[in-house]
Amino acid sequence: MAQCVQSVQEFIQDSFVPLVAALCSEEAERLTRRNNLSFAELVRPFCRLTSEVHMRDPNNQLHIIKNLKIAVNNIITHPPQPGAIRKLLHDVVSVSQPAEGLVANVITAGDYDLNISDRSVKASVPWYSNWKETLMELNTSTFYSATTPWFESYRECFLQSMPASDHEFLNHYVACMLVVSSSEPDPVEQFLKLSQEQHRIQHSSEYSYPKWFIPNTLKYYVLLHDVSTGEEQRADSIYEEMKQRYGTQGCYLLKINSRVSNRGADEQIPDPWSQYLQKSTIQNQDSYEDYTVVSNKNTDHLISDGIDNEIKDGLSNNFKTHPLQLDHPSGSLDSTDYMKASTSLQDSKKSNSGTPHGACLTLTDHDRIRQFIQEFTFRGLLPHIEKTIRQLNDQLISRKGLSRSLFTATKKWFSGSKVPEKSINELKNTSGLLYPPEAPELQIRKMADLCFLVQHYELAYSCYHTAKKDFLNDQAMLYAAGALEMAAVSAFLQPGAPRPYPAHYMETAIQTYRDICKNMVLAERCVLLSAEILKSQSKYSEAAALLIRLTSEDSDLRSALLLEQAAHCFINMKSPMVRKFAFHMILAGHRFSKAGQKKHALRCYCQAMQVYKGKGWSLAEDHINFTIGRQSFTLRQLDNAVSAFRHILINDSKQPPAQQGAFLREYLYVYKNATQLSPDGPLPQLPLPYINSSATRVFFGHDRRPAEGEKQAATHVSLDQEYDSESSQQWKELEEQVVSVINKGTIPPNFQPTQFCLNRYSDNSKFPLAVVEEPITVEVSFRNPLKVPLLLTDLSLLWKFQPKDFSAKHDGETKGQGTCDEDMVGTEAIAEFLINSEETKVARLKLFPHQTGELHILGVVYNLGSVQGAVSLDGIDPSIGLQAGKFVSNGLSVRGRQDLEIQGPRLNNTKEEKTSIKYGPDRRLDPIITEEMPLLEVFFINFPTGLLCGEIRKAYVEFVNVSKCPLTALKVVSKHPEFFTFGGNTAVLTPLSPSASENCSAYKTVVTDPTSVRTALLSSASSADFGVGTGGSPEVIQVPLPDAVLLPGASVQLPMWLRGPDEEGVHEINFLFYYESIKKHSKMCHRVLRHTAVICTSRSLHIRATVCRSNALGDEEGRGDNMLLFVDVENINTSETGVKEFHIVQVSSNSKHWKLQKSVNISGDKDTKLASRERAKLCFKAVRCKNSEENYTFADIVFGNEQIISSASPCADFFFQSLSSEYKRTHVQSHTHASQRAVKQSFDEIVRLIQRCSEVDLNIVILWKAYVVEDSKQLILEGQHHIALNTIGKEAFSFPQKQGFKKILGNSDWEDLEQELPETVLLKFFRPENTPVPARPTPEQLSNLIKTSLHYPESFNHSFHQKSLCLVPVTLLLSNCSQAVVDVMIDLRHKPTSSEALEIHGSFTWLGQTQYKLQLKGQEVYSLQLKACFVHTGVYNLGTPRVFAKLVDQVTLFETSQQNSMPALIIINNI
Q1: Structure pTM?
Q2: Which site from 595, 776, 919, 1456 is most exposed, i.e. has the minimal number of CB atoms within 10 Å?
Q3: Could you give the C-alpha distances from 1173 to 952, 977, 1140, 1299, 1423, in angstroms and in order?
Q4: What's the pLDDT tens digit per position in 837-877?
Q5: Read out DSSP for 744-775?
């Protein structure tokens, strides 16, 4: 049970006190009414004695009575009706509520922290004096210190309102006060009348109520004197007369109303009455004029009625009525009537408390009344009780001499008024015998009750014990139960506790009352007493069992209160049983609800909720929250109701769909009522659907236009694309690249990469920029956790806008305060948005800013409703049939909002951030609206999706300015500039329309003269014409707009040539179009447009080329530099793409130093045809051209009838782009060692000179046509491949990557090729910093310093018969290939070492000087005359001289053997 401020001993003593009746004359009642009090109310606060009282027991032993209290009541001649008592108890409980504003009391019980805020300690209870000490005791108590004042009020009211019964005398009147005013004409006569009236009430058969203790009731005569108006002498004289008539101990003169009305109003007199009158307002009313006994089948249930009649202060001498009577019969009431009753009660309480009591009394009068009660008790009441006990004791002793059996038999024979003897079963069924008033058993009970009332518990126990035996022998079960009950209480209250508390007595008594006597009122009293006693002995488990046992269907209020106390017992146990506490609180709440006590029901459920909350018992939580919501709504606590229903909906509910639908409808109904109370208030937060704030995406700009026919719009960015961090980084790098080029190599500090779509992965630390008049789309992710669909209507964004003018000097002057005006920002609303059960769905909501300023998107606002009949039946998805058109709403929807609160990324940069949890800002919902900017749209016409590797295709690009501002500085940047070109400066800027250029070649061609076939046609071009070598980034390409400006609404079409990438497969090529406004803006400097082209390439040709030095030292022009070029072409196309054959139509060279001179192909065919997997080898002669540092020389060798001008667009464009990418690749490698080279600069220059000897700077372009059959229609495709030849004798490929080769060539070819690939290619897999710098030239490089050539007759005739020695003159030509001076050593003594060589070629000898040392200047050709000597005929190899060379003055370098030319065979014939 809950803590009570009163101890159990005080509680029991105050529950059973001597009752004194008060009978007043009308004049006396009038005197007391001047203080707004009846006589009984006047004396009530002073009815507890402040001092000890002594009396003697029958054995003449002195007995001390402490803290005695008496009760003085007006005489009421009709017993209270059960219905009225029930109403009174109902009202007492409903008025007593937890005190508000108290500090919450938190108790830790096991794993639970329970918050009980209903500790209320009131000084209004009659026994409450030392409230401070009691409060301190409560605070320091080790027990659970929650109090339940409503239970104490109920218990007190219940015990006081118990009707008197014949089987016990505890609530029978012991004495009667007769009160007469001194101002009456004949007070003594009035006393006589009152005395007769009392006698008539007690002894007449007309009155069966009230009950009187003994026939000879003590009469105490009180003369009431009004000091302010009455004559004191007359009062004194009347009092003297009374003393003579009634004796000094039988009368009293009470002087009251001493206070004069004109005394100072500021004098404060205490009001001890208000606490009693507030406590039991209804008990003190005489407002029921007539009554009707309620007679219907529900009489046992709590019956209540609205207290609508006004409260009147009538006189108590109206014996016909009782204050606890019903004024109307009533069957049952609904909760609203209960609410009416309680509010009416509170009104009466207010009116009562507002009325001053004791206004005419002074503190002296208070003392007089206190003195009067003491005198009455000391001199009148207690002597009377003492005498009565003695008389009863004497009677009992006189009977003890008789034999018990004889006594019993005599009783049976002579007690005529007893009912006849019956069988035990019959007796039990009729609750036993009915004794006459003078029966000796009742005299024992009477004596026991008197002893109990004056705290003589030992004697009382003895008498009760004796009476119990007699009653049980007689099978008088009602009497026996009463004796058992009081015997148990007496045993408990005995000082010193001589015997343990006999709990089994109480158990028997309760069982008898309940089961045999069918008297629940008496059973309830037993339970209340016994539970309190058990609680005081810390027997909480037994107390709880007792309380629960008495719960039944006949009284919801009683059951609720007892269940609540049982719950408190469980939590007060040594090991608190918290879950039992919660369960019984739920049961109590349910019974409170049935009893109409809505507030108490709500409180019980709320306290139980603390236990169930967060423990995973979701169904229990749902039930409790639902009930809390219902009760709160009934009590008009709408905020609490909304909160409770909200909890049911937002937790992951395990309820079936039908139940969830019911919860949702209930929530909407309650919510609607709550919002109607404050229609102008702020929009409240809605709990459904869930919003995943971090998944919110914000998109700036218009939606993509769909493709129209051959026109394909730039892909740009859309909300349908998934975020890719790698791709995002690429776009950022491209934008940085173009901004860096625009700003001459630096990126401005205020540069902010353009982000079109912001999400959880993007960098949202800066305020995003949006353009005025361009939409902002916010994608919000909703999730419906319920199993029923949700319908959102009128869904739109909630925002705040602050206009600012960014064009002002002070960077954004505020124009005005942020307001929600449609003129500033237009808002698009979604009329209906259905989210099916447990579905996650995104809504895209748009805003249209019309002014510059700062926009803050706060959240979403919508009407939340449910869909009618949306529960799925037989497994059919309810969403079917709800997709199209209007949804059927059940008409109940509420308007509310949800905020979008996005937490930024966790900071992890500084030490402080790493050691604490800090989050950065996320500003994706706070865009800055900038001034108007141009807006570009790009369309691609005839843009291919599939190409052959190296294929050239002409497409067109359309640029459209869809804004109201002109745009300029249009550029495009791509990581793959070799993929496309807009043509160089030589290209015609006004191309034919796309339709007119169909079936035409993408190249610029000229018809050739047949005679010029196989010889080179020369032209030249500058790399500057094609944007290469100008110092800018090759990836950033200027778009050649006419006048460099695109006006608003204007569009322009430009040709774009595309070349298929060299590697087969699918390629994603990113284009970033950059443009600016003509007018410079402070916030946004430029804009970009993205496009991703997806191209699928398939195999075409694979080309290998080698260049080697020609043996011939001189060319046609007599210069010594010429080379042979071998080109190996293979068709690796697998014919899957429908390619029939490839034709090599032209081979072109372009270089600053070399040019192709002619083709040395033996084949007579005009061009070379290659079917699938066929291969051809071409041979060309290349010569050095005149030094031209600026221009490239283009030489075209044509195999067909048309010359493709390789120095014009697009052939030259792609050549220069491939050149720049190749240059970039090699340039990066060469720069890695710059710092080391600076140290050994002089040495490196020498190395470089040596290296140059073996280098050649020759680039080859192979131009081809492919014949494709597609849909029985033949198409001609064109293309070109590039090969860069850098080193003599080293094979170069059109496709540089190894893995690509392996895929193309297959394993066997790849193994062959691997032999030929030099190891240096592997260097690119190394980390650059670890790559060793070549400290000295390689022998291969050193062996290319000198080029040698032998000049001799191929065949020489000699007559060996005439001359045995044959001498042949041989000229050795030495050519210095480097620019430096070279020391050369020639050794003729060299012999072939291998026997094989000797077998094939005969032996000969050189005559004359056999070793020479020469010095050759740069590029010098030296001729040396030698003589070879042969002794017989044969074929001889003259290529035996060994040539060594080294640079002059380089001691560190050894002379290196130079590469020998091809074998020089001579035939010696004999004539």
Answers
A1: 0.69
A2: 919
A3: 22, 31, 11, 19, 48
A4: 889 999 999 999 999 999 999 999 999 988 875 444 334 34
A5: TT---TT-----SEE-SSS--SS--EEETTS-
